[in-house]
Amino acid sequence: MTAIRDLRQYIDHLTDTLGEDEVRVVDGAHWNLEIGCITELLAEAEGPALLFDNIPGYPAGRRVLTNFMGTAARTAVALGLPPDSAKLDIVRAWQNISKRIEPVPPVEVATGPVLENVLEGDDVDLTVFPTPRWHDEDGGRYIGTACMVLARDPDTGWVNAGTYRCCVQDKDRLSVWMLGNRHAREIATKYWDRGLACPIAVVVGQDPILSTAAAMAAPAGVSEYDLAGGLRGEGVEVLYPPDSDIPVPAHAEIVIEGEMPPLSEESVLEGPFGEWTGYYTHSGQETVVRVKRILHRDDPIILGAPPMIPTVPAGDQAVPLYSASVTWDHLENSGVQNIQGVWAYARQLMIVVSIKQTGAGDAMHALLAAAGRKRTGGMERYFVVVDEDIDITDINHVLWAVFTRVDPANSLHLVRTPTTAIDPMLSPKQRAEGDLSMGIVLIDACKPFAWKDEFPAANRFSDAYRARTRERWATALGL
C-alpha cells in the first residue's frame, strides 16, 4: 500500500494515477448551499473529486475538498490498489488487509505542517474557514463531516478517534453530536463524572487512510491511529501541541483543540442536519467544545463528506467497503461455506451476499449469520442472499434476483433488532420511551435448492462474449 501521509499528497496521487481531470478545481462557488449542491450533482453523475477555491468572502487558498472517495477507482487509489480494480476485488483486498493487519503505533515528531499557523486567545476564530452550509434545512455550518474527533481515556491513556458531525456555533464554540453508545461519549462521561471537562481535538482534513480508520469503530482500547499505521505499513506521524496530551496528525490541514464540559454546565441547540439516511432527524441540546486553540496549514483544506440520499451511486465508498468486508469475515467465522462475495448498498442499509449453494439450508445460514454481524445501534435493514450467477455489485442484477427468485410467502423473514437515534422510522413515542428498535428483513433470493438445476436458464450473454464485444466496438460505440 502506498503510504499517503496527507490530503494534498492524496490529491496529487489521484491526478497522477487517474489523470488531471480526476480532481476538478471549482472557483467562486458560495459556501452557503452552492458548494453542497454542486457536490451532490457531481456525486450523482459519478463525477470527479471537487476542490473548491476562491470562495466568496474568503481569501484564495481557503479550500474545500468533496467527493474524495466517491467512486470505486478513487477508493482503490486511496487504499493503494490498482485504479481499475473490480469492486469485489477491492472488498477482497480490504478483507485480506484487515485479516493480517498488524497495528503500528504512531510516530511522535517535534513539528509538522499543521503548526504553520497557531491561533490562540483572542485570535481563536472558527469563522476564518469557509465552512459550507451543506443543505437548505441545516441548522448551521458543519465543518466536521469527514473529521476525526480525538479523545484520551483518563484511566488507560487510550487515544480514540471517531467521526461525528461538528457544527460551528460561534468564533470559539463548536458543537459535537455523539451517540450515547460511541467510545468518545464513554470517554467524555468519565471526565464529567469527575466534575471535569473532557479535553478534545477535532481534525478537519486528513488523508483517506486516517478517515477510513476513524470510521471503522475499532474495539475499545485499540487506537484508530494504530489501525491506520497498520494499513499504511508505517506509523502515522503525530505531534503533541503545547500543554496537550492528545496527539494530533502532524500533516493535518486543521486541528481544533478545546474542552467539552458536561451538558449540565453548557450545551447548545444542535441540528437539524441532513444525515446519511437522506433525512433530517435529530436536533436537540448537545455537547459544546470550548475552543482554546486552532492549528492549521497555510492555505488549509476542509475535507467534506456531506451526507446525501444513500442511493446516490457515487456516495462515500469507504463505509460500504468496511461493512462488506467485516460481514464477509463474520460469515466465514460463522461457518458459512462457498461465499462468492459480499456487497453493501445505500452505505450499509442493505447487505447482499452471494453464495454457491451445496445444501438446502445454505441460504438461511448465510442470512442468519449476516444479520448476526449487525452492529449494535447500526441501521442495516435488509439482508439479501443470492446465487453465484448474480453480480452483487450491480443493483439491477440484485433486484432481478429479488423480483424473480423470491416467494414472498416463504422467502421473507422479519426480525427486530436495535437501531440508531437517526433512524427516520423511529416514532415520537419510541424516542420518548427510549425504544431504539426496528425490524430487519432477511430475503432468500436464491434458486430453490431442491430444483435449482431445473431453474429456467437466463437469457443473458456470457461475460466472456460481452467482454469481446465491448473490446471490438469500444471506439465506434463508446463502450
Word description of this protein:
There is one protein chain. The protein is an alpha+beta fold and 479 residues long. The protein is 27% helix and 24% strand. It is built from 13 helices and 22 strands. It has helices spanning 7-18, 34-44, 72-78, 87-100, 183-193, 208-214, 224-232, 318-333, 362-372, 395-405, 428-433, 463-472, 474-477, and strands at 23-27, 49-53, 63-66, 107-108, 117-120, 141-144, 148-152, 159-162, 165-170, 173-177, 198-204, 237-239, 248-249, 254-260, 268-270, 284-296, 301-303, 339-345, 350-355, 382-387, 412-418, 437-444. The strands form 4 sheets. Strands 5, 6, 7, 8, 9, 10, 11, 14, 15 and 16 form a 10-stranded antiparallel β-sheet that branches. A 5-stranded mixed β-sheet has the order 18-19-20-22-21, with helices on both faces.
